[in-house]
Amino acid sequence: MADEGFCDNRVKWLATINFDDERGLLCPIDFSDHGFSVVRAFTISGTFGAVRGGHAHRRGRQILMLVSGLIDIEIRWKERLERLQLDPLNRALLIEPLVWSQQIYRGDHSSMVVFCDTAYDPSDYIFEVEG
Predict the structure, then answer these.
(1) Are the CB atoms for 104 and 74 separated by under 8 Å?
(2) Is 131 helix (H, G, I), strand (E, B) or coil?
(3) Long-range residue pairs from 118-123, CB within 8 A, at least 24 positions apart, any chain
(4) 117: alpha, beta or left, given left = phi > 0 and alpha = psi -120 to 50?
(5) Domain positions in the chain
(6) What is the pLDDT along the chain (131 residues), one digit of tens a residue?
(7) If one looks up domain 5-16+36-121 in CATH, what number appears?
(8) 22, 42, 60, 109: which one has the fewest Cβ atoms less than 10 Å from its Cβ?
(9) In angstroms, rounded to a whole number, what is the distance separating the alpha carbons of residues 129 and 78?
């Protein structure tokens, strides 16, 4: 599903390749393919049904990348609502500024890593859904 765009192409799946063998899974991502310079990263895990996010960013771009489990992603842009899922086939999602999103964790061991191209700034957050 890589390169499929949502919300006027402000949200896109990023292609990843899974290298899976008896030792485990390796899943690289090349940020330069997307004009993305990582400034910070963090991991988030949640128990089944946990809801995280619930905001947009004024300037920051983010890549959400699945580490384990399943995570539902709800995105809103203008009047549009899309529901996607981070899963073993669709591991990485690029979200552009001003797209509101929240994540719903669908397993007790679901987790993701978030890559941001801006430093943490509380004034960058938009919590209400803008129409």
Answers:
(1) yes
(2) coil
(3) 118/39, 118/40, 118/57, 118/59, 118/60, 118/61, 119/39, 119/40, 120/40, 121/60, 123/58
(4) alpha
(5) 5-16+36-121
(6) 445 678 888 999 998 888 999 999 899 988 888 889 999 999 999 999 999 999 999 999 999 999 999 999 999 999 899 999 999 999 999 999 999 999 999 988 899 999 999 999 999 999 987 65
(7) 2.60.120.10
(8) 22
(9) 8
Q: Cα dihedral sign for 64, 115, 103, 121?
A: negative
> Taking the model in full, what pTM does it have?
0.91
Under a CB-based contact definition with an 8 Å cutoff, are residues 73 and 93 in contact? yes
Q: What are phi and psi of 13, to 5 degrees?
A: -70, 140
For tokens 């957050």, name the residue.
125
| Residue whose token pair is 């999103």 | 101
Bridge partners (DSSP) listed for residue 64? 93, 114
Phi and psi (nearest 5°) for 59? -120, -30
Q: Which pLDDT value is given to residue 4? A: 63
β-pairing, 19-21 vs 24-26, is antiparallel
